[in-house]
User: Fold these one by one.
Assistant:
Number 1:
Amino acid sequence: MQLLTIILIGIAANLDNLGISLSYGLRYHRIPIVYNVVISFISMLFAYFSILAGSWISGYIPMNVANILGGLALIGLGCWFILKPGSQSTGNPSRITTIHWKESIVLGFILAINCLTIGFGAGFTGVPPFLASLSIGVFSFISIGIGVKLGHRIGYTWFGQQSDRIAGVLLVLIGLYEIFI
């Protein structure tokens, strides 16, 4: 039964990753495997330490603080996508670009903030920190890969031509979800 809990923690912690990577795919960005590993590793580290800290921090910091911080970061990134100059895509898949390593690290930290609450919660339940954080890392890697590829496929449509704005709106909605749900 604990294995099922560990798998479900990994999936739940990465639902946001799927949406965020979809927004990157819509913008014709490619996240190379090595950068996906970096992003997943950062999420794994955050999860590991938040699981360890979950038991004793629960008495001092409300769980919704991590959701608010992660949500605000996502809203800020989404607003940047919406408001930046030239934020309408041409719908041309030949303009696929690869994110830079610095962007992958920033993205890794933004996504890892979302793992904090789940890590704290998992710490309260007594799941093994290493296995739960490993599950989070594996499902992070899978969800980012699927999201980017799905975003590229959608990019051929009218939907893809409006990708920057749609991606920004998606990030804002995910951020609001993190804050209010």
Number 2:
Amino acid sequence: MTDPVNRFGHLFDLSREMNAPTWYSVLQLFATACTLMVAARVQQIRSLPSIAWWGLSAIFLYMSLDEATEMHGLWRTGFEGYLIPGTSHVFFSWIIPAIIVVSIIGLIYVRWLFSLPRRTAVLFFIAGAVFVTGALGFEIIGAFLADETFFNLSYLIVSTLEETLELSGILIMLYAMLDYLQRQDIKIAFAAEQTTSD
């Protein structure tokens, strides 16, 4: 009775990559990027500053691509062979440049965040806090708990919480964007092109 779990359980394991949760996360990130593009385009049409919106949409597009391809492994460039003290794998060295990049983005966007409607700003902050807590906070904890197999119980629990927080943060961000667009009286409609025959 355990064979189905052994053979197919990884397809729905939050602590693994390249499976159903990964696919869902990729779609979530891409959908959020698309809503940010809509907001950016509307800002342009209204002759309002749009660079921050375009920048954020590019970030979410990258995150979607990264989730699908694990490109963050490239962030280890310059840290090859570096082992964070107290950890067992050089795999986690990508955390160091990630913290630097996230801090820079946060500093760049903090002033813009306060320019948004209060409800949207609060939702953006919550989404970012939840996501970063998972993506970096719990990743750091997992780095100290992981053994050679990455299958010890403590690491699996932490990595599952990490992925859950990431998915939750993205979902909050997507909701925040849809809520923002609605409050801006922006409606997205899909219309099929009609052709007339002679």
